[in-house]
């Protein structure tokens, strides 16, 4: 029997869990202001007049304000020079001011008005009569379309050259929040593995993942579970599975702490691994380690993908994205979004730099049999790549209880 897998129950594991959210340090107001200053420097360097932020994680990144996207425009404008301006439906102004951590300029629009006209008029009032305006890459089309119609004095371009350049380099405060989220999710992984029993369904397991995260003190979770042949499909299958002895088990989950994400996947066998399961699991482990070893400061992001994929191809799988093998990129950036810049994929020549956080998950997919994905998040420190969580130890002892 795989060590640390089975032998307990959902109820017993929930009873053991205690909150892990004490002592969390939020991002300081001074850091939000420094982010805006960096964005303004980038705007000036790129000849842009302003950056429009919609209701997105970029609004959260630059202001600390977390709002849900609706049909009503709610956001902010960062001018190349001067103070940030907030945009709000008029009836939401009191709530907007409650959320604001700094600044005092709030421009409002009434229900019968076109809010995109307010955006254009605000930019003009800040002294920019014409020029190029950068838009939050997550801005909905109806707002982009409205801006183009209301502001033909401006050209509107993607703001990713500003937002991604800022967001993909994490500060010590961000690293700390991500680390806490990772620690919480890893605790749930261990509990879920111990709680497995023959006959449970993936639906029951996903419910447990949510309850366990909440017992540890967080309010938002995301989890997916696959058993047996279904583990071969990277994003699962549209039907539940029931656990039987010998199944491969794949669990992918995460949470948020201060808005920052965790994302960890573990795959192991419920029972005794077969020779085939053992070989593929060990291959996945070697590929993940090769990706990590390729993560060198100054090297292009694509090297991480090449390192991991090279191990898989050398074992006779692929080549490229062909299956059996690795059908997708090796990793994605992580922060306020679970998938963000920069991506570990062929063709991405962005140099790995201090502060970058990204997954290394070179999944082995063998349709008709099973799959293995070992996903951990790495970050670039001053002395090179580091793991937030230690990778799975071995096929027989995935959580390293007897390491």
How does this structure look, described?
This protein is of the alpha+beta class and 403 residues long. It has two domains: 10-23 and 171-387, Creatinase/methionine aminopeptidase superfamily (Creatine Amidinohydrolase), CATH 3.90.230.10; 29-167, Creatinase/prolidase N-terminal domain (Creatine Amidinohydrolase, Chain A, domain 1). 34% of the residues lie in helices and 20% in strands. It has eleven helices and 17 strands. The protein has helices at 10-16, 29-45, 57-63, 93-99, 115-125, 141-150, 160-167, 172-195, 202-215, 275-293, 302-314, and strands spanning 50-53, 75-79, 85-89, 106-109, 131-135, 154-158, 221-227, 248-257, 260-261, 264-269, 331-333, 340-344, 357-360, 364-366, 370-372, 376-381, 384-387. The strands form five sheets. It has a six-stranded mixed sheet, with helices on both faces. Strands 7, 8, 9 and 10 form a four-stranded antiparallel sheet that branches. A three-stranded antiparallel sheet has the order 13-16-17. Helix 2 (29-45) packs across helix 7 (160-167). It is globular.
Helix content: 25-40%
Could you tell me the CATH topology label of the largest domain.
Answer: Creatine Amidinohydrolase
Give average pLDDT, whole number.
Answer: 97
What fraction of the residues are assigned to beta strands by DSSP?
A: 15-25%
Query: Could you tell me the radius of gyration in angstroms?
Result: 23 Å
**Model regions low in confidence, pLDDT < 50 over at least 5 residues:** none
Helix tally equals 11
Written as H for each helix and E for each strand, in order along the chain, the element string is HHEHEEHEHEHEHHHEEEEHHEEEEEEE
């Amino acid at each position: 029997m795989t060590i640390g897998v089975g032998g307990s129950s959902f109820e017993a594991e929930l009873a053991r869990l205690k909150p892990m959210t004490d002592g969390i340090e939020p991002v300081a107001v001074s850091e939000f202001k420094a982010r805006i200053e960096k964005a303004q420097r980038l705007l000036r360097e790129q000849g842009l007049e302003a950056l429009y932020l919609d209701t997105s994680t970029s609004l959260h990144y630059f202001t600390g304000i977390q709002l849900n996207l609706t049909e009503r425009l709610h956001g902010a404008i960062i001018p190349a020079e001067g103070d940030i301006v907030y945009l709000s439906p008029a009836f939401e102004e009191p709530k907007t001011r409650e959320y604001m951590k700094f600044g005092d300029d709030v421009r409002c629009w009434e229900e019968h008005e076109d809010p995109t006209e307010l955006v254009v008029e605000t930019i003009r009032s800040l002294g920019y009569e014409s020029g190029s305006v950068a838009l939050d890459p997550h801005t909905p089309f109806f707002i982009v379309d409205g801006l183009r119609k209301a502001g033909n004095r401006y050209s509107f371009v993607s703001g990713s050259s500003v937002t991604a350049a800022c967001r993909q380099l994490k500060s010590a405060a961000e690293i700390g929040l991500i680390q806490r989220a990772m620690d919480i999710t890893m605790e749930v992984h261990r509990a879920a593995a111990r709680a497995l029993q023959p006959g449970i369904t993936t639906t029951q397991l996903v419910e447990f993942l949510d309850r366990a995260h909440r017992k540890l003190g967080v309010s938002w979770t995301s989890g997916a579970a696959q058993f047996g042949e279904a583990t071969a499909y990277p994003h699962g299958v549209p039907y539940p599975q029931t656990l039987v002895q010998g199944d491969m088990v794949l669990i992918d989950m995460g949470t948020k702490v201060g808005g920052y994400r965790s994302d960890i996947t573990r795959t192991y066998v419920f029972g005794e691994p077969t020779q085939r399961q053992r070989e593929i699991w060990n291959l996945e482990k070697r590929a993940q380690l090769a990706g990590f070893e390729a993560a060198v400061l100054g090297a292009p992001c694509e090297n991480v993908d090449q390192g991991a994929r090279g191990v898989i191809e050398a074992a006779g799988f692929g080549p490229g994205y062909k299956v059996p093998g690795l059908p997708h990129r090796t990793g994605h950036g992580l922060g306020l979004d679970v998938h963000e810049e920069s991506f570990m994929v062929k063709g991405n020549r962005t140099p790995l730099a201090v502060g970058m956080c990204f997954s290394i998950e070179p999944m082995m997919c063998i349709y008709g049999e099973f799959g293995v994905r070992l996903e951990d998040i790495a970050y670039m420190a001053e002395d090179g790549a580091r793991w937030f969580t230690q990778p799975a130890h071995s096929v027989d002892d995935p959580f390293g209880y007897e390491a």
